[in-house]
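Dear colleague,

As promised, here are the two records you asked about, laid out in our usual form so they can be pasted straight into your sheet.

NAME FIELD: protein one
SEQUENCE, THEN STRUCTURE:
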Amino acid sequence: MNRQSNSRQGVEHMSYNLNTYEGSDIESNDGRDRERDLDAEIRSIEWRRNMFLYAGTGLMVFGIVIGVVGLSMKWIDAQNFPKIIGGYCAILATFLSVFQIMEHLSAFADPDIQSRIIRILLMVPLYGTTSWLAMTFENAALVLDLIRDMYESYAIYTFFSLMMGLLGGTDALNRDLMSQGREPMKHPWPMCRWQFYFSPLMLHRIKLSILQFMILKPLCAIMIIILSSTGKYQEGSFSTDNGYIYMTGVYNISITAALYGLMYFYMSTKVLLKDHNPFMKFMCIKGVLFLSYWQSLLISILNAADVLPEFEMWSKEDQATGLQDFLICCEMLLFAILHKFVFGAHEYSNNIRHTTSTENHPLLVRKDMWRNFITTLKHEDVRDDFKDVWSFLKS
């Protein structure tokens, strides 16, 4: 009996070990298959990243060459040259930006951060499309340009929100500021003789300087539409009887305060953000802002001073606006390529390799790209920041 019992126990023990071995072998095979899938997915993303640069640069050069040759050979009428070349650049920039947005949506490893990146990437399609439509439909140019400029204020806020997200949020940054002593820093020019400390109070003031522009810019746009309907607004006219000079003054003060706030924030956090390439991100946002407003102001001043040469594509009154829209269409193509390297999705696709949750697997995330895009449209961060600033003002 003992011998039979021992024999049965031995068989059961061998069966248990065999099942355990087979189970661990299956899990090991599943792990290797998942790892191969991840490696293939990341190699695919890297290949698309390189093709993005080559295809974008090649198509841009091809379009410029065709445009110059077509104009010199009179294949393209001078009147339609800005619309054709500007439209080509705007469409290509839109496709490149949409391609990059889809890369983020297919590797949605950090929804809070990538949602804000996607909102910034949407600048290029919006700017390029509205500028080309403004050239094509001149009667709607004022409204289209205002839509483009209103997104500018939202983009500044989104960039600030992105940097805050990379730092862990307002609460985490405030705790860090209160727990550690900070060295005094010099104010930016022209107040560089004095020093300041980056504190929670300073952070609230920076946030206020950015949000005021986000509110004031749409209000200015509404005022411009009202003044235009009454004949009191003419783009590029610096007459004291015209609303342009007053709207420009208000806008200058507001955007200067917002940009100074961003500059203070960058100076105070660039060490904390050094792993996230904050300088290039800051320059990308500032570059688009320069091209969308300061370039427009400079062209208007040169046109008012009769320094600009006359272009047969536009009348004297419309050439400042037309030239600005054409330049933005072309410049957005350059920014679409630059955004690929500054706001790329490769670091997030690599982060997926280290996640163990099944719901974060890239093949599952790719199937749910639409829901990922819906996530980017949620704006709880905007609501929370307005509540925070309102509490700060009341206190």
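NAME FIELD: protein two
SEQUENCE, THEN STRUCTURE:
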Amino acid sequence: LLKEQMDQLVGRINGKFSTATWSPIRYIYGCISHAELAGFYRDADVALITPLRDGMNLVAKEFVACQTQEPGVLVLSPFAGAGGMMHEALLVNPYEMGTVAKILHRALTMPKDERELRMNALRNRERINDVQFWMKSFLKAIGSLLEEDGEEVLPTE
């Protein structure tokens, strides 16, 4: 039933707003390869990532990493784990549908210079805060917790 409702809603939206060379929603039901997904992220004008509760949410980071051509806009829920760190994203509460529509409009009409500034800052932060950074931070946090208990397990530098 939910899939049927999604199919109908996407059909109505695309039917109303599509042109011969563009459609607002690229709806794919099924699996796609990593390469195809990266291509979708690269070509997307906007990524709307609106989980209803906290999570690591690597999708936002993947979108930023793949934005290598025309800069898109990241729209995030404040409930996304990445929402507190990706300050250049537009934040929107997914429970406030009217606000979601306004933020999507803002993202789709954002001037190129603002999109570039936001995306460059997001990319730079992701370059710095890579997997090595997170691993070292995690191990350091564990080390400080262990040291507080009087036990030193990690080698000191």
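A couple of things worth noting about protein two: The longest strand covers residues 46-49. The chain has a mean pLDDT of 87.

Best,
R.
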